[in-house]
Specification:
Elements lengths: L1 H7 L3 H7 L3 H25 L4 H18 L2 H15 L1 H28 L7 H13 L3 H4 L7 H16 L4
Helix pairs in contact: 3-4, 3-6, 4-6, 4-9, 5-6, 6-7, 7-9
């Protein structure tokens, strides 16, 4: 909470006026980010672009977000830690990730049905993509040894698309 006090220029008392605990504040922060990111993510999935373009747009969105503000990714590692210890927090994140997985599955399913992607296990493919997107959090914790988030994510995008695109 001391970091929040310092960053917000509010007193601890003012923060505790709005939030009874750090957990309550973090749950509200999850809600904030879900609302913020859901609009764009839903737009990417609902647009008329071909599924390969949508996957590229999805990865690009996370690259742009990381480059403009890595703090949500830093916080996410804390959220994962809290989810291991708190059932309510785990359930909240499970709901968020389930929705995200379903968005990716929608793209993959449309790509398979349109013939742009190989016939594949939609859930497994979507889960692999989600885990690769979430790997961006590694860059908030460790030395990247000269590899930027952008380079990494663009390479992963190319690897994934090379593996799922139907060859003509």
């Amino acid at each position: 909470m001391d970091d929040v006090v310092q960053s917000s220029n509010l007193s601890k008392g003012a923060i505790y006026w709005y939030y009874k605990s750090k957990k309550e504040m973090y749950l509200d922060l999850v809600n904030f980010w879900v609302l913020r990111y859901s609009v764009i993510l839903n737009h990417i999935v609902e647009e008329d672009a071909p599924p390969p373009r949508q996957l590229k747009d999805l990865f690009q969105y996370f690259i742009d977000q990381y480059e403009s503000d890595p703090q949500p990714f830093v916080a996410l590692t804390e959220f994962w830690s809290m989810a291991q210890k708190d059932t309510e927090f785990k359930n909240k994140l499970q709901k968020v990730y389930t929705h995200f997985l379903e968005l990716i599955e929608n793209i993959i399913d449309r790509g398979v049905n349109s013939g742009e992607f190989k016939k594949l296990d939609v859930r497994m493919t979507a889960l692999s993509i989600m885990v690769n997107i979430e790997s961006i959090n590694w860059f908030t914790l460790f030395d990247a040894h000269g590899v930027s988030v952008k380079e990494y994510m663009e390479t992963i995008t190319d690897f994934i698309l090379a593996g799922i695109l139907k060859k003509n």
